[in-house]
Amino acid sequence: MMLLVHSPPFVHFQCQVGKNKANIMGFSKIFILLVLVLHNYIVVAQDGPEITIGFTEGERYALLALKDGFHNAFLDESWQSFDCINWYGVKCNGRVVGLTLDSLDIVGEIKLDALFNLTALSTMSLRNNSIFGQLMDFSKNPDLTRLDLSGNKFDGLISPSLVNLVLLESLQLQENRLTGPIPWFDQSSLKEFNVSNNNLTGPIPNTSKLQSFSSSSYDHNSFLCGPPTSTKCGPTSGDDASSNKSPVNSTLLIINILGLFILLVLLMLLYRKNKQLNQKFNEKFEKKNVTQEDDEEQGHEIPSSVVPSRVSQATMPKQDLGKLVFVDGEPEFELGDLMTASAQSLGTGNFGNTYSARLDDGRNVIVKRLRDLKPLSRDEFMNHMKIIAAQKHPNLVPLLAYFYSNDEKLLVHKFIMSGNLFNRLHGGRGTGDRIPFRWGPRLAVARGVARAIEYLHNNLNTTLVPHGNLKSSNVLIDENNMALVSDYGLTSIISNTVSVHRMVSFKSPEFLISKKVSKKSDVWSYGSLVMELLTGRVSVLSVPQDNKAVDLCSWVHRAVREEWTAEIFDLELMVQRSAIHGMLKLLQLAVRCCDKVPEKRPDMSEVVKEVESIKVPNIDSESEEDLSLDRSLTDDSMSATPSR
Length: 644
Ligand SMILES: Nc1ncnc2c1ncn2[C@@H]1O[C@H](COP(=O)(O)OP(=O)(O)OP(=O)(O)O)[C@@H](O)[C@H]1O
Description:
The protein is of the alpha/beta class. The protein has 18 helices and 22 strands. The protein has 4 domains: 9-44; 51-240, Alpha-Beta Horseshoe (Leucine-rich repeat, LRR (right-handed beta-alpha superhelix)); 292-414, 2-Layer Sandwich (Phosphorylase Kinase, domain 1), CATH 3.30.200; 421-638, Transferase(Phosphotransferase), domain 1, CATH 1.10.510.10. Adenosine-5'-triphosphate is lined by residues 346-347, 349-351, 354, 366, 397, 413-416, 420, 469, 473-474, 476, 486-487.
């Protein structure tokens, strides 16, 4: 066999194979490097021992610094190795040329100089996250052709460095909080441009490029004016203002400025008052996040003594903290107790960051900082919480307390000991640490979840809509192996953009057509969850970014259609011969729940009846026998035929 090796354009080698080392050692090193070359382009750092593949060491550091500001568990896991190919969203060809991190729930800030080392970057998209701070400086990214930062929380000015990018074809900055004027964009390369839904001000510059885009590119910026929008610029906007110097206008201008100044002072006073509380939470929780990595690695909690919030709390009048409202009336602890408790971040979900806090009495509670809510008045929020608090069912995670201030909305839940269903199902596979998850407990989970959703559906009113986000990380398992559903009652208060992009129900087949979610979309999510339970496969609804995750409803339908039903079940279940009848019954039910036509799906009360009719086999009679080749599992055993 002849191998043709094309030299990659960006390869640096610095091999330090000692001359006196045995030949065989040198040969094996060279062989490994050769394999790496064939696999990808290699860059060996000139000044360090690490080998980075696909990108330079400087680029790797730049991305790691970016990741540090993001606090995103998924990226923390994905961006680790020295081979760029393993880094989610990063495109490399010896240099980093693309970065795509859309809709990843990133909450964080990017430094102005964050992209200085990514000098070969050609495309970048961070759309639909919650990134805040000022726009970065792009002066070191001359190859940038497409930039999409839409749907974030960037504020401040549009970076003037963007004007000098002569290859820029597409610039999407809509749905941020950008302020100030639009810079003088006139590069001929620019074909797509959108700055709508910001707080930009002043006349749109009169360049042929900016004038060539439709007015929708500029929509919803209250103080932007001039063509191509239909808003006329007043005498104080832009150039015209300076030429108009009549005494009346000057007086008006002075009055305006004075008024603005007073307003600003008032706003600042108000802001500082609110900020005090916000800062306390940030100090308490976010700072821990930053220092947490090491502690987590060692399995330690962060001692509360490292929290500077104790000092600030002492200097702050208590009434400013607001009060936790306890669902059962009697205050069990105070907001101050939460702030002095040691805390651990559990992750960032659709509704905000979740922390486990250990109170002084040794009890753990779960604190959820809500974000991306619809604009709600205090009364609206409080009323909604009362409705959630009234939902009491043994299979729902109990809400203990809640808190409202302008900047901070908190939910405090009971801590559920044994973690979530996702980790129970998928954690530790292939390692000696895994305790098998057998049929009995899985059936109990299917029952518990069905009962919880049925209960919620029976209590629906105009405020409490279906669960909307039923997935395995929202099912918790307590010390008695009981399943408890969390995150209920929040769908109707979360902002529409977030719901549409991230909530499970919005991925149902009917949402794609009718744009509606209903009780039947919960039934569909339940079907998918049961399939995850039965197959042990990761559902794309639980982890959309996992490339091994599958759309379980379609996957199971295909298995039934193509007659490989026997391969559906998780091998951990297949050892239980006595369970097979029940497993098939549950699978049939899940297939019906996943029917593409919502009306054909059963109601939750029907689901509960059917799941409860499945008998848990007597453990003593379970023969631990491998059934993976059992031919009795054919498509004939699947009587439910899904609609195509
Ligand atoms: N009451 C609780 N007890 C123990 N762990 C919890 C509790 N509530 C949430 N968790 C865990 O905290 C982590 C973060 O939860 P969170 O709800 O913020 O995110 P999520 O469930 O991954 O996503 P989503 O917001 O879409 O529901 C998850 O692993 C979840 O299982």
